């Protein structure tokens, strides 16, 4: 089995998500902050008349929040019938990863980044961390932004 991923960078690390979940890649547009949402929810943007919650992926992974600029793309994904935007630092390529090359990271609990990973695979001289969208989007308080 082969996984087709779109790869992108966050804090100098390479990540990937299933290409089938990606609906579009947008140029940066300013977000409107909302009260009483988790810190990693950057806010919402207008997506052709619909309200799109936008997640700062660096903050969601427990890293320093992104100070977004016009250079930061937003990857629009669909997960369980809902659209969400993900702020990333850059978008790289679409790559194919063989399932057999995907290794499970050692889990160190829900507070660790490994909690959000479906696996890690070699990609040339680098590694790509495949995100598990079910775990990444599993937060009841995030639904308040939708």
SSE inventory with pairings:
Blueprint: E1 2-10, E2 13-18, E3 22-26, E4 41-47, E5 50-56, H1 57-60, E6 74-79, E7 82-87, E8 90-98, E9 117-123, E10 126-131, H2 133-136
Parallel strand pairs: 2-10, 5-7
Antiparallel strand pairs: 1-2, 1-8, 3-6, 4-5, 6-7, 9-10
Name the features.
mainly beta; OB fold (Dihydrolipoamide Acetyltransferase, E2P); five-stranded mixed β-sheet; 10 strands
Mind explaining what this structure looks like?
With about 150 residues, this protein is mainly beta. It has a single domain (about 1-145), classed as Beta Barrel (OB fold (Dihydrolipoamide Acetyltransferase, E2P)), CATH 2.40.50.180. Helices cover about 5% and strands about 45% of the residues. The strands form 2 sheets. The chain has a 5-stranded mixed sheet with strand order 8-1-2-10-9. Strands 3-6-7-5-4 form a 5-stranded mixed sheet. β1 (about 1-10) and β2 form a beta hairpin. It is globular, with a radius of gyration of 15 Å. The termini are far apart. The mean pLDDT is about 90.
